[in-house]
Amino acid sequence: MQTIEINPMTRLEGHGKIKIFLDDKGNVDNAFMQVVEFMGYEKFLKGMPIEEVPRTVCTICGV
Amino acid sequence: MSKPKLAYYLAGGCGGCDIAVVDLSETLVDVALAVDIVFWAPTVADAKYKDLEAMPDGSIDVGLITGNVRNSEHDHIVKVMRKKCKVLIAYGICATSGGIKSLVNLYTTEQLLDKAYVDTMSTDNPDKVIPQTSCIVDSKYDLTLPALFDAKPLDQVVSVDYYIGGCPPHYDHVKTAFTALLTGQLPPPGSWITSGKALCEVCGRNPVLTGKPKKFTTTIKRTFEGTPTEGACLLEEGYLCLGPITQGDCGVKCPNANMPCRGCGGPIPGVKDFGTRAISAIASMLEKEELVDEIPDPVHLFYRYTLAGSALGKKLNR
Ligand code: SF4
Ligand code: SF4
Ligand code: SF4
After folding, report:
1. Nearest CB to A43: which of B116, B148, B167?
2. In terms of C-beta density within 10 A (0-12 exposed, 13-18 middle, 19 or more buried), how is residue B197 classed?
3. Which residue range(s) make up the domain with A47?
4. Are residues B230 and B283 in the same domain?
5. How many domains does chain A have?
6. Do A39 and B47 touch (CB under 8 A)?
7. Given CB atoms, is A23 within the 8 Å cutoff of chain B?
8. Ligand 1 site, residue A54, Cβ cutoff 6 A
9. Cβ contacts (< 8 Å) between B103 and chain A: which residues?
10. Number of independent structural domains in chain B
11. Splitting chain B (318 residues) into consecutive groups of 10 residues, what average pLDDT does each group show?
12. Which of B183, B237, B249, B227 is closest to B206 using CA atoms?
């Protein structure tokens, strides 16, 4: 199956890519948008004093 | 003369460092006119990784990398950047030292994924599906994702020519750094681009600057406990401010807003391991040893921005 990959998706923060699958005639059969990044704040904030959280989670996305 | 070519790649960061460049406002116009931006992804320009890969090696004068190296895609692109760029700069504390996002190194990838995709109260995922590096959907669409690993600062993956701290760097500091770059007035390779002063040296709350002695810290306070005395050193008042060992290039942003510094500027010159130096600096300010036990959550305080780049690097028993 022929594919087209758009990597990275641009003008945003948070990395993503798009993969498009083409059929025999070259038409779009299916397309997938994938978020390729994973951060983990849900876990690594554990134990942090609550008053420190706002100034920390602002780095999830700085745009 | 042709303009210097500039490339910018955001790896495992948040885009805040990119915004700090955009915050140059009018100066940005001068910078944009003075350089030829050949690659800036994924935030500002519509550039693709294959465009960068196709450029001749060594053809880019300056490369800025922001964010840490946290997955196989970051790892690949930073290596491509190193090949293409004559000068490579770790820009922002994620790239120089790991940043907040390197606190992932307190846990294993499995523990992190399990919390985010299975174990949070708002998650409905009965089949416990978590991201895989490759999977085939409907038995015909093969999809891949980068492999995750412990976060690393940039210089654990490629050689770095200059370091710029801050989360993000203050735009005035970005301006200074860009001016130094464009005029070629750079410190020796391997250096941080910084005034070299500690935050305390430029902080209006520092009693030493007005000839008064610095007092020991007699209590430990959390930031919601009481209100700091106007103009008084936060550390003296019990709010654990990391100003003594942090680069003072941010305009004293946090202490000026009654908030103790958490060290995003990176270590003052001569300090390699921010966390251990911060521990020793704070410990030496405490009036009595017992106060150490009152410090809440030391790892998120002393290693908030530098865990991956520290001598510890990660939590060993995870
Ligand atoms: S250093 Fe801070 S502002 Fe820059 S990318 Fe990392 S988290 Fe974002
Ligand atoms: S410890 Fe903090 S508040 Fe005190 S002088 Fe240093 S930077 Fe200012
Ligand atoms: S005061 Fe400290 S934590 Fe706040 S912006 Fe400056 S260096 Fe970063």
Report:
1. B116
2. middle
3. 2-60
4. yes
5. 1
6. no
7. no
8. no
9. 44-45
10. 3
11. 91 96 85 91 94 98 97 98 98 98 98 95 94 96 97 98 97 91 90 96 97 95 96 97 98 97 97 96 96 96 98 92
12. B237
